[in-house]
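Follow-up to my earlier ticket, as requested here are the two runs.
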Amino acid sequence: MEPGGFDPLDLKLLQALQLDGRAPFSRIAQVLGVSDQTVARRYRRLRAGAGLRVLGAADENRLGRSNWLVRLRCTPDVAEQLAGALARRADTSYVSLNSGGTEVMCSMKPRDRKARDELLFDRLQRTPHVTSVTAHCLLHNFYGGALGWLSKIDALSSEEETALRPPPYEPIAGPFNLDAIDESLLTVLRTDGRATLTELQTATGQTESTVKRRLERMRSTGVLYFDIQHDPAPLGHDVEAMLWLTVAPSALAGIGQALADHPEVSYAAATTGQANIFAATLHRSSGDLYTYLSDKIGALDGVHSAETVLTLRQVKQLSYEPTR
């Protein structure tokens, strides 16, 4: 789809799916005042033309695990090969080529300390032509995860949004323990968040009632959520930038919340490292990025410095598609 290729109904459907990725087309159609067939047809068109995918994801914090951002400096001749190798790993997401092709960055979700150390201290350190590796533990999310960027496009009315929004998560005490059935469900949903109950039954060997109960349990506790993978270009956002902000510790919470409220921000978190806030942003042009840095970031009290890194190519978002 070309820039500007979304019409108002497309945008409403995108935001509806961001709110509830498994909402039946019949429910979305009823709220939007169109037919089921229209919603299904628009969904297929967005899949084909804009790379739309609804994918399940686990909230690692609720599982008692840590998320990491890893930056790798390398020589340009190995950057694409390195990015591809990272993208093929099941424990990575948002793998990108940056900075003239001399930096690869990814989000890493190791299952345990052994998996983390094996990648950070062994494999990456021994990779030829990698000149430096820095790893930043994500301490607190200000925006992202279940709160996707499409929630900010304001395509739905407040009444439509209320009708489509799922119930709030239930608080849980301590980490959620996944068993083999939960893991098998997540494996399927990570590749197709709208997999049917029949498909989930086949993959797990469980009854429909068990599958429904497990899904509801993981969703109601916030362990399982659904995110949207799509090409931002048809929405007119051709410039993707990553900001590494160094801020005063006393200003972390305030600046993080301010970033979460910015329509340009798709993800923001407090991190370890010299730069203690990371933000991913979307812009229509480099001029818009300049204005954002000057007017919005510059107005935040407590920001000592800002490093801006342009994304040249997103090799992997939530799932790896080698043709991207």
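Run two:
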Amino acid sequence: MTLKVSDIGEKELVRYIIANSRNITPDDTAITKFNSTNLISTCDMLIQSRHFPHNMSYFDMGFKAVTVNVSDLAAMGAEPLGFLLAIALPKDLKIDDFKQIIDGVLKACEYYHVPLIGGDTNEASEIIITGTALGLTDKPLMKDTYNMGDLIAVTGNLGLAALGFNLNTLDNVYVKKALKPKARIKEGLILRDYATSATDITDGLASELYEIKKDGYGFMIHEELLNISDEYKSISSQLGLDYLDLILHVGEDFELLFTISKENFDKLPIDCMVIGEVTDTDVVELTLENGFVERVKNKGYEHYVSE
């Protein structure tokens, strides 16, 4: 049988590319020695039908294109240096809509203090925005440099965007998180001096935990530490959704997931939330509020995989 890309999924395709390149790290960015520091570069492509909710404005599309790239810099503890924009547009797109996209890009660049330094344009059947972000750091944060006994923490509540994607009303924190995500660049710059490893949560907590897992190490997450409100549980139930599934397996949080020693966590100058610890079980587990422990499935958003 001839395999298709849908048979293996995005992450396996990326692993193939990394395995056959001498210059790519297994993190979401490239690290290049540059003078006495490190140049961090990352690239993300967003396709209208796959990455932009139907109720997202053109302005927010542009803003998000910058955010997803800057979020990768944040996870590495890198100071933004420059942003390149490649955009493909349908030929019948209104000029005012195009201007809104570019306004979103420029406003995001201003927000993250990163200049737009170049790019390209082309034609496509739908809006496709590809961003490339460059940054600098002396101490890049890697994904798998944690130690046994480290705490697992995040920079904010998880699952808000996942719930927001299922809501139609606009004036609530869930929809705002879904349509107007923000990268945690300031937190990343601080965490590089405290954390032992870090990544950003785009494909869901479970998927990211499996992505950073190394042999002989496991993760225990505690439901009671996830700060899940009664309102969140109630809305999820009304929609017929499993609240833990939203938090673990959907993504688009753009929060930083990091490991840190207990001693350093007490010294952190920013508010973060401990959700678990690194163990020696070699599995990813969740302790439920009722005390039962269950294995967490390796599932999250992934391109190419058939639904």
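The only thing I checked on run two: The chain is about 35% helix and 25% strand. Let me know what else you need.
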